[in-house]
Amino acid sequence: MKRPMRKKMLFLCISIIYPVLVSAQVSTNLYEQTDKEGMTRWVDSVYTKMTLDEKVGQLFMPIVEPNSSWKGRISGYIRNQKVGGLLFSKGTLAQQADITNYAQQLADIPLLISLDGEWGLSMRLTDAPKYPRNMIIGAIQDEEIVKLYGKEIARQCREMGIHVNFSPSLDVHSNPKNPIIGTRSYGENPVNTAKKGIAYAKGLEENGVMSVAKHFPGHGDTSEDSHKTLPTIPHNRERLEQIELFPFREYINAGLSGMMTGHLNVPALQTKGMPASLSPEVGIHLLKKEMGFTGLTFTDGMAMKGVSDQPEASIKALLAGNDIILGVVNQGKEFASVKKAVEDGTIPTSLLEEKVRKILSYKYILGANEFTPINTSTIHNKVNASSAEWIQRKIYDGAVTLLKNENELIPVRKLDQTKIAAVSIGAPADNTFHKYLKKYAPLTTFNAQSTAALSEIKALKEYDLIIISIHSNNAVDAAALQQLTKDRKTILAFFTSPYRIDNFQASFNNTTATLIGYDATDFAQMSAAQGIFGGIGISGKLPVSTTAIKEGTGLNTEKIRLGYSMPEETGLVSERFSEIESIAMEGIRQRAYPGCQILVAKDGVVIYEREFGKFDYGESPEVTDETVYDLASVTKATATLPAIMKLYDEKKIRLQDPLSKFVLETKGSNKANLTIRSLLLHETGVIAFIPYYAAAIDEKSYSGSLFGKQSAIYHARYAGAWGRTDYKFLPELISTRESEQFYLPVAKGLYASNKMHDKLLKEVIDTPLSRKGSYRYSCLNFMLLKEAVESVSGTDLDTYVKQNFYYKLGASTTFQPLKHIPIERIPATENDPFFRKQHVRGYVHDEGAALFGGISGNAGLFSNANDLAKLYQMWLNGGEYGGERYLSEETVRLFTTTKSSISRRGLGFDKPDPTNSRYSPTSPGTPIEVYGHTGFTGTSFWVDPTHNIIYIFLSNRVNPSRTPNRFSTLSIRERIQEELYHALKTIKSPITTD
After folding, report:
1. What is this enzyme's catalytic activity, as reactions (predicted)?
2. Domains present along the chain, CATH in parentheses
């Protein structure tokens, strides 16, 4: 008789409190934003038909595994105990989706499906996108990133039919010896913890998933694990308010809707040795009365040792203010216990009704009442959508933290004056960090098994800057590292826990700059590399203190160069770019080219960078981002034109100047009065082409003509004709051996003398003019402009553009590539049986440029797409890149916007032709403001200042022959460009559900 009376008195005390709560309540955002009339109708319609078993069942959420062996048990929970929800653990996406479909079909009342996903679905599901522990999130200062992260996790949850995520953990990690919280916490600062938790929770709830903060009233400062025992929080109330309770109070005031009570003994809160999860002082007086929480309250798992030994634990939990009991040991027994407590009045029916109606209300709010079966065959791709990866990148971009930066070394500048090496400790030399460093500058990479092994890399003495990366938590400081950081300008990058920095105190003191990426994932390495060179601005702050470094430490830097991300970074959707791959692969299947590179940058970020195919058909190396292509006529706008722009900027050349002012050989010729402007616009009347090879061939070495009908003599197929090969070159012009006299490389085993340059230039100057002032595209115009550049600058074109542009940009773009680039990175172009009698590889394809020794104004440049993008981004930036000014804004504006009055051409640039789309070099949807150029070998670039876009396509379409030209027939470049403009029309938030 005494026991029921004691329970009734307990509830009486509790019920007296409830009226007081009204004035202190904080309504949740989810509740306020719902259709209350519709919610009430649905809740009433369901509740009035519920049996007592169904009402009691709503209070339970068992933990289950999503596999077929659990089907019988899950069926029993639903049919016999009428449970209101399930918390899945372990398994795969398809398994959980399948069991969710099964469970929801069995349930008469829709189930509330939950996830214990503090760092996303991958915390439980093996094939879900993997996100970092919360400590890394704690380093992020841009709360919008954290909110986007929450939205993305919510999107994935909704795809999986999940309504509730038991996250964020608002435990303040104030005890480094804590065995259970650690990296699950956002850090040791309660304000930072609150901000990150709230931002993440808002993201979840704004995308339709309930957030559940845990472990109230705070599990951060314990040295015990509540899974194994009942930990005690020994602090007084003042300390609890300042640290442990602060994030929860902020969370409640932000209108967030879920709370999990922890199994913690908190004497200052009058728990009297009971777990907080079972204490009315905590769950009702503190949480609901004082703090005003009105959302759903869940217990932590009831199988945990911190609570499992408590008698009548489920009853106590409900009387302590919890709405849903999570993961009891014996579902049948606990269900019966609570049902009996309702029947004998220990749990009043009014309290039961209040809880059940609240649970049903949130089922309506969260859309559980409108369950749509999940397609298990597509769920993997839907969850692992492009937005999932983008958020991974965003997280690490925001988290990377700069701890030291003497003389503002980072972002690294003056690339032309700095010889750089990168050494990885505990990672292979081809690691992701090194790969992304190479995107910014030509550097040499090394790897070492330990810091002590650095002493074995003698070549490091040759470098001005050494970037050392620590990839292993087992690495420790060593004398070799300490000496290296003392002797050289060094950057130390940690891909480890921040606590590991304490093991490198001496090297940390010596090094010029130190940053931390927090773990060794590819994303951490990408972000750190970009931060070092200014592809992203660094803004992270250390979320915990180490022995040497205080929490909150972190220096900011600015973005000064191209970054690397995904279309979502600029408001586009990756899926809209899928057709680009189809077109690129179509070109390979149709043998329009064996391989290609495609790069798209928007708003200063490379958002698409893909390589397709191989160097050649059949067995051949695959194209990579380091593959270097012969640019052909893209050289005009990438070498000759920048040189002219620079000289114009320096007032050394004027557009109205006559060519004879700079190229003395033209005096007295019909080229003397051609202006720089007319040459750039192709309005000189110069003929389009001359047979350059003819200048090198000894006409006396053969009889008859060079070309004829196919026969035993005319057996070499060349440019659509049949040529003979029994001719000889003029011995004073061409030699098969390199020497002091013959030093201009024409092809493998073929060298020209300087006399070749003089003779070929004379041939160009002596060509007739026709229709002067009218438009005719001619490579000869830019051959002459190259001579003007070299005359004014006093150096060759290659040296001039390297010193003034490429080296500073960190680009390996070059003429005569075999002097600087391994042939293994250069695909072959045409198999030339007539002139060079070989399959050309590493030498310029254009015959005229070849006879000029590979350095010409019309062709000869070799590059990959990434290095080209740096130059073009400089133009988009108005002449500035990497914190350096290359050209004045006025000069850039003049050259990129000027258009001929009689043709589509600009000042050295090609442009769209809106009047004749058939002959336009661009796609129909390309704006008229776009400028760029195409190349004969299957190359092109286009810069769009209206959309801030760069599009680059590189290939070796002339391999093995320039004919048939399927590349042009298929309009590969133009079709891909049109897809870009289609993608621009579908800008939307990437984090949405269907």
Report:
1. Hydrolysis of terminal non-reducing N-acetyl-D-hexosamine residues in N-acetyl-beta-D-hexosaminides
2. 25-383 (3.20.20.300), 400-558 (3.40.50.1700), 562-661+780-815+855-994 (3.40.710.10)
